Amino acid sequence: MTEQGVRVDGGSVAVALDYDAIVIGAGVAGIYQIKRLVDLGFRATVLEAGGDLGGTWYWNRYPGCRFDSESYTYGYSWSQELLDEWHWKERFSSQPENYRYLSYVADKFDLRRHMQFEAVVTAAHYDDDHGLWTVTLEDGRTITTRFLITALGLLSAATPPRYPGVDTFQGQSWHTYYWPHEPVELAGKRVGVVGTGATAVQLIPVVAEQAEQLTVFQRRPNWAAPLHNGPIGDAEMAEIRSRYDEIFERCSRTPGGFEHEPDRRGFTNFSPEERRAYWEELYAMPGFGIWLGNFRETFMDEEANAELSAFIADKIRDRVDDPELAEKLIPKDHGFGVQRVPLETNYFETYNRDNVRLVDLSETPIECITESGIRTTAEHVELDIIVYATGFDAMTGAYDRIDIRGVGGHRLADKWADGPSTFFGLMIHGFPNLVMLAGPQSGSASSNFPRGIEKGVDWVTDFLTYLNEHGHTRFQPTEDAEEAWSSHMREMYSMMLMRNAKSWFTGYNSNVDGHEHGKTRYFVYNGGGPRYWRKLDEVTGDDYGGIDIA
Ligand code: NAP
């Protein structure tokens, strides 16, 4: 590792190298990455835009925000002490507790001193003469580093809608990602929620219990299934602790990194009645069983998917009193599970409440936001608070917001204008010495997040260690290797029904130019964790084949 302030020759002028590695982002990935780097003696720092660490769990403070991963599969696995000490209080732990957990980890391992908060990175330019990155911060500072490691998050670039008048609203309004840190008084308020994705599905039932009046503005309904949350008592936590090895091993075998494994017994080996009985069981189980633990044909075969969708539609009809309203809440344009399935607690029953009303934007679209509410083509809804649960410029949005330039000053935003192109979602041709943790197209990003990123961080750390040990200072994937990965990405999409999804999985976002439906962006690795890591192991075993190292 280089020494502080070492001068790097290469071009006509020597340049001071401030760090061996800079990590951008102090979320779940950044926290573990800095731990590994510091342990190995790298001079490294984390630059975090937020006021504290935690990433997703720092920002998303909306009521109802919680895991849809079983809590004990979400925690870090790399410290036995941590596993022994931490008690997950709920099967699907809530945001405040998750934020507390990550803070606890950072304090326990004294990681905060390696982190800079409110350090907003605006640019990162690669200097090929000196083999380093210059990182520019909003406060005007520039910092140099040999290696740049991005841990920007998949869903960290929030996208409010672009309706006329958004800025004119005189009440309180915000995107769910920016839910205020101070308590919000909902009692006695008329609240509007725009959007019915995973975030809204968690938020709506909790807001409905507190607000005087809740109006949900739904453009398209979303399939959702019950979370079945519950407490984890001392005895159960002790039992979970005794099985941690087994739990993590199981997660490493499943495509999604969850405990739930696709059922390979064969959809057609069961009668429709047997399938229904089976789905009743899955529907009654906590977590993603009904989605990820289901017959694997439901992900790939239209007919199998349609039958499952009909079963879930009936569940919605059972749970919503008003049959006409129930039909509005049942998606008709896509099947169950081809978009990421939100897990809910009393979501559908919430529409039976007297203080909750659905405005169907497919019939009466929003025209504008006014000073006092939302105007649709049919009415003006007076509101005190508007909550935009309108999603994210997923995967690449956080990259687009930084002026990232590689060899020859070429901009990453230009290279990715029609969608990302990467090597294993880890590296990018033309952008040497840049590593992405949970970047677009990586296996880490498409799984139960910490399970994937731990492996990703370990791989990156081993790779950087290898470079150091061999005196290498520059790497980038070859163009051919990147193209091979892109082609594999496309092939994996072609096998899944989600290839047509009108969701962030395919790069759709109506609030971002160029992200229209139909222009598929290959964001998510669909081949499953085990296949991804097997392929990456082959790269490693081949002396990092596909990567130019100098
Ligand atoms: P999302 O799934 O993209 O949903 C956005 C919602 O807003 C959709 O209903 C969308 O309608 C609507 N919308 C967007 N722009 C609109 C506009 N201009 N006018 C009206 N409606 C508009 O976003 P999200 O709910 O934040 O969830 C994103 C992802 O975050 C999830 O897929 C999941 O990966 C993650 N998440 C996870 C959890 C968890 O349990 N751990 C919780 C929340 C979120 P259309 O469908 O018509 O586009």
Task: Report on the architecture of this protein.
The structure is a single chain. With 550 residues, the protein is of the alpha/beta class. The protein has 2 domains: 7-53 and 116-157 and 394-549, 3-Layer(bba) Sandwich (FAD/NAD(P)-binding domain); 198-231 and 258-388, no CATH class. Helix content is 33%, strand content 16%. The strands form 6 sheets. Strands 3, 4, 5, 6, 7, 8, 19 and 20 form an 8-stranded mixed β-sheet that branches. A 5-stranded parallel β-sheet has the order 9-18-10-11-14, with helices on one face. Strand 10 (190-194), helix 6 (198-210) and strand 11 form a beta-alpha-beta unit. The protein is globular and about 70 Å long. The two termini are 16 Å apart. The structure holds NADP nicotinamide-adenine-dinucleotide phosphate. NADP nicotinamide-adenine-dinucleotide phosphate binds next to helix 6. The site of NADP nicotinamide-adenine-dinucleotide phosphate (NAP) has 24 residues, from helix 6.
Q: How many independent structural domains?
A: 2
CATH superfamily of the largest domain: FAD/NAD(P)-binding domain
Give the structural class.
alpha/beta
Number of helices: 19
The overall average pLDDT, rounded, is 96
Q: The CATH topology of the largest domain is what?
A: FAD/NAD(P)-binding domain
Described by strand count, sense and barrel closure, the largest sheet is: 8 strands, mixed
Give the amount of beta strand, in percent.
Answer: 15-25%
Q: What portion of residues is helical? A: 25-40%
Q: What is the architecture of the largest domain at the second tier of CATH?
A: 3-Layer(bba) Sandwich
As residue ranges, the low-confidence spans are: 3-7
Tally of extended strands? 22
Could you tell me how far the N terminus lies from the C terminus, measured between alpha carbons in angstroms?
A: 16 Å
User: In the CATH hierarchy, what is the class of the largest domain?
Assistant: Alpha Beta
Cα-atom radius of gyration? 24 Å
| Attached small molecules | NADP nicotinamide-adenine-dinucleotide phosphate
Shape: globular
